[in-house]
Amino acid sequence: ADAGHMLTDTGALMLAFIATRLARRPADRARSYGYARAEILAAFANGIVMIGVVAWIAVEAVGRIMEPAPVMGLPMLAIAAAGLLVNIVAFKLLHGGEDSLNMRGAALHVMGDMLGSVAAIAAALIIMTTGMTIADPILSLLVALLILKSAVGITRESAHILMEGTPEGADGAKIADDLLGNVGGVCNVHHVHAWSLGTGRAVATLHAQLTPGTDADKALGEIKTRLAEKFGIGHATVQIEQEGCPDHTLEGEHRH
Question: Considering the entire predicted model, what is its pTM?
Answer without folding.
Answer: 0.79
